[in-house]
Amino acid sequence: MSATDWYAHKSLENGVFWIQERFYESGNRANIWLIRGSHQDVVIDTGLGLRSLPEYINSKGLLGDDSKRKNPLLAIGTHVHFDHSGGLHQFQQVGVHKAEVDALANGDNFETVTWLSDREIVEDPAPGWRARRYRVKAVTPTHILQEGDVINLGDRQLTVLHMPGHSRGSICLHDKENKMLFSGDVVYDGSMIDWLPYSRISDYIHSCERLVKMVDKEEIDQVMPGHYNTFGSKRLHRLASNYIARAGACHRASTCLVKSIASLALRASNSRSAC
């Protein structure tokens, strides 16, 4: 299957494109965001990487033909989980938070929580493809990101917000001028996952408190999440507030049990894949 068949996209306002993997039918299917800038373009998250994302972007002319853009496309992972980081190795410039640099550089498929089944891929990307052989490929980041860093695209800037909880290196990218938040898996319109190997509830609460404050200060109008559909500031406030309210003793106890089971299952699965 060609890259042009594997992906599909929508053009949104303000030079933003929404890309998805057409034949990955799963709640884990991540949103891929392409942002055009006057001097630099950025892709936020890269999906599974089963077909070439750069090839698709170029074949569809999503970057245009502007000589002012001298820098290669920068791919940023909001975190290194497999559904977001699988295609990072396809790019010349790669950025992730400093807490997850080693996991990506070492191809650590435990920390990337690689968990993919054949039934989620409804059309094989290549003859004989099997999910059990899928691995996140190691890549050494060229951009090591941390809180407060600014990605300068020329006519717009994206500020890095370290928002751990879902993973230790989870980030959001905030376009302050346009009041847009690219939230990764920190928040989306669904149940927040805090039971993975490097999840931490206390960090998640703090991250959600930051989000609530940003909404109260009217710094966000629109959220471009890592999964599902976009939503506005009122929904963001509700999602973050609800998580904080629910993260009590009972939630912590049940999450601890689920986390232990998930960690054992992931280690067993990735041990078999490595054989």
From TrEMBL:
Name of the protein: Metallo-beta-lactamase domain containing 2
Domain Metallo-beta-lactamase: 29-227
Coiled-coil annotated residue ranges, if any: none
InterPro entries registered for this protein in UniProt: Metallo-B-lactamas, NDM-1-like, RibonucZ/Hydroxyglut_hydro
Stored CDD domains: MBLAC2-like_MBL-fold
Pfam families documented for this protein: Lactamase_B (PF00753)
